[in-house]
Amino acid sequence: MIAVLLIVVLSVGLLSGCSDNKKQSLSVGYAKVDVTPTESLPLGGYQGSNSSAFRWSTAIEWPFSAICVAITDGNGNSVLLITLDMLNATMADGLRSSLTSITGIPKENIMIHVTHNHSGPALGEDAPAITAYISQMTNGVISAAKAALDNRLPVTGMQTTYTRPVGHNTDRHYLLADGSYQSYSVGTVPKANLIGHYGVADNLLQLVKFTREGGKDVVFVNWQGHPPGTDPNTIATANYPAVLCDYLNKNLNCESIFFLGGSGNLNNNSQIDGDIIHNDYQELGQGLGKAAVEAAKNFTERNISELRVKEKMLQLKNRNYGANKVWVYAITVGDLAIVTAPFEIFDDNAVAVRENSDYAMTMYLSCCNGSNGYLPTPPSYGWEITYESRITNYPEGTAEIVQDELIGLLKEISTESGYQTVEKAADYYQGEFTPKTDGVTYINPAPGDMSLYKAVKNGFFAFQVINNGVIKNMLCNDEALVKEILSKTEIKFLFNEQSVVVGIAE
Predict the structure, then answer these.
(1) Of 193, 262, 256, 223, nearest to 402 (Cα)?
(2) Preceding amide of 227 cis, omega within 30
């Protein structure tokens, strides 16, 4: 059992009652300021690839931005939502304090979010170039915040929509021929031993649109998937979130801001149609942009009401020493809920928060208001080679503590405000997957020989078949189905999202 001390700090002004007219009053401002580095500096992600310490940028391929959205309700309560094209948010606490001093907005009402860009400046590195850049970036954020507050316009409507683009991300935990799992670093495992993936990658793409009187719509976009590196990996770029927003701005005539979801276990591959790695961030951003524009044809009108904010300090056990203080947040406005945590969360936890939220749309944002590394889910702690659980500071079960506390914050807000639960379609929680065949006919080397399969790890049964003279490893967790398969001479298989055999194709 992990001991957890909880201290709740409420933004009292945001929780006060207000009249019906004021509940429907909302204004939103948007600003985007260029914060592109002006000199070579260390890049975050994949450090050590080009020098003994870290890799230094050699060029800029896509400009960097500080984007700020300011939201104010009819009571005069405001929040600032800020996104940066960076790897981590180590500077968040000081930056939020500075913004509070300048704008008067309470610190707990300011969110600093980063897109976890592996081709962006490594803000945590001790280098003069980084120190200078943080100063430049801070000035840009302050300018964006001021401009967003000055740019606030009345909101005449809030709409939401979502879609599930296929082929853009994958669970980077692999299933091996012996029924075991390991994470993304699979270089030491022969390809013949790779069966599939641990599970379905969450591919929910969410959009929120604020229609403003006298100005462009402001659109929130939420997706989960690691920003890929560039080739060569010394090129600095704002990466696919910036490309995605640029695509939306042009095709929806709006101003957009990107929020990264549960991506701690997801990479930019195509899980269902094979491991096609999308290292071209522009291709990825444009692909997601096209899906978002199509989804925008189906916006649903939502309720607007006052802003509500809750924050909570969790004292989480550190598996190496003592405990860490971690702040988590919940923000609601009408039918929209946003929850944040300073971790690389896994998509399982994002799905659980959505499923247990009362709100019509719920976004769980990674990498907000701090940088505390990976927050793995329990299965990865038991696997033989698991990158995230090996380097995290937090023991098994911590992700579920954070998840449950965020769900609790949303429940507190909905109870206090009298919010009525909104029914949502089943595919909002988890996308459906239809078993499919690869169309290949496999040959059974010895029909009727029931000694050709064996029980392996995690409830799977392993057997081998032949295709084009090559032996193929297969896994199935249904022993009766395996016996039926082994009784046949030729067969086509139905596979699930893990590439596990789940049936016989007609």
Answers:
(1) 262
(2) no
The runs of H, that is alpha helices, within 151-265 are 240-251
**For the packed helices 281-295 and 240-251, what is the interaxial angle rounded to 10 degrees?**
40
Residue type present at position 38: T
| Residue spans per domain, the chain | 5-168+203-419, 442-504
Strand 170-171 vs strand 470-476: parallel, antiparallel, or unpaired? unpaired
Q: Assign 3-class secondary structure to 186-243.
A: CCCCCHHHEEEECCCCCCCEEEEEEEECCCCEEEEEEECCCCCCCCCCCEEECCHHHH
> At 221, which helix (H) or strand (E)?
strand 217-223
3 state SS of 438? coil
pTM above 0.85, yes or no: yes
Angle subtended at Cα 340 by Cα 349 and Cα 259, rounded to the nearest 5 degrees? 95
Sheet holding 181-182, edge to edge: 181-182, 174-176, 194-197
Say how far apart CA 347 and CA 224 lie, in whole Å: 8
> Phi, psi (5° rounding) for residue 111?
-115, 125
Report residue 206: phi and psi, to 5°: -110, 145
Neighbours of 100 (CB within 10 A): 16
State the DSSP H helix or E strand holding residue 137, giving kind and residue range, or none if neither: helix 128-150
Give 428-485 pLDDT, tens digit per residue: 988 777 888 988 999 999 999 999 999 999 999 999 999 999 999 999 999 999 999 9
